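Quick sanity check, ABC transporter, ATP-binding protein:
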Amino acid sequence: MREMAKMLLQLENVSKRYLRHTVVQDISFSIFEGQSLAILGKNGSGKSTILKIILGLSKATNGLVRQLRGDKLKIGYIPEQFPKNLRFTPDEYLYHLGKIQGLSSYYLQKRIPQLISQFQLDTVKNLWIHHLSKGMRQKVGIMQAILHEPDILVLDEPLSGLDMTTQQHLIEQILSLKKSGVAIIFTCHEMDLLRKVADRAIILEDKKIKEDFMLQEEIDGYMIIECRWHDSKACDLLRDVDGVTEYISLTEDVWRIQVVPSYSDRLIAQLLCWGASICSVTKHEDDHYEHKINEIFQT
Ligand SMILES: Nc1ncnc2c1ncn2[C@@H]1O[C@H](COP(=O)(O)OP(=O)(O)OP(=O)(O)O)[C@@H](O)[C@H]1O
C-alpha cells in the first residue's frame, strides 16, 4: 500500500474579479506533496490568474488559499517570459537572487555550481544572460525557481518556444524534482509535457473548473477484468487494492473490475491468489478528455 502524500495547499471557492469582470469563480482544489497538477484552458480562461493567486502575487476577491503546513511553504515560480535584458552571468544572477531571499553565501556557493552543472550551462556560465539563447534563459529561470529548494514549483507555460531537445531536458528536470517530492503546478500547451508530468488536470471553462481528472486513468484508459469469484469478502478485499477504480458484481459470482493499466498485472495475480478465475481482460478507452485537451491545445 502506498503512503498517503501530505496535502500542502488548498484553494477553497476562490474567485477573482477585476472591476466588474469576473475572471475565475469558485475554484477549489488541493495540492499534495510530489503531485503534479496541470491547469488547462483556452487563452484568457484564467490559468495565470490562478497561478498568481497561489503565489500571493494577486489577491483572491473571494475564497481562501490555505497553506497546510506548520512552517511556511517554499514556493518557486517560473514565469512565462524570463527577463531578456539581464546583464549578469547566471552565477551572479542566482547569487544576488539568493541573497535577496535570505540564503547564506555558504549555501549559495555550493548550490549554484551544482545547478549550473545539472542544467548543463557550464560552457556559458561566464556569459551575460542577455546573450544566452531562449532555452538557456529558460533553464536559468528554472534554476532561480528551485534555488531555495521549494516545496511547490509553479510553472507558467515552461516549454513555450523551446526546441525539442531543450523541451525534453526540461521535462526530465521537472520529473526529477517531482520524484524528490516537489509538488508541480503548471500550465502548458504541449501534450508531451502533460502526458509525462501531470498526475492530475483541471480544465477551466466559463470561469469555473469544468473537468477535474487523473491523467493516467483518463488518457491511458482502463483495463476491465471480468472474473468468476465467490468470496463474501470480495468487496472489502477490492476496496484496498491499488489501481482499482470501480467494481461491480454482475451475478453472485461474476465480477467486473476496472483498473488502471499499470496495476492490472498485479491485480490479476492477486485475484488468482484469492481463488478467482479470470474470464476476460479488455481495454476500455475513453477519449473524452483527449478530445477536450486537443481542442484547447489547438486554439
Ligand atoms: N490585471 C488585470 N486587470 C484586468 N484584467 C486582467 C488582469 N489580469 C488578467 N486579466 C484578465 O483576466 C482574464 C484571464 O487572464 P489570464 O492571464 O489569467 O488567462 P490565461 O488563461 O492565463 O491566458 P493565456 O493562455 O492567454 O496566458 C483575461 O481576460 C485577462 O484580460
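Posting the structure with no commentary besides this: DSSP finds ten helices and 13 strands in the chain.
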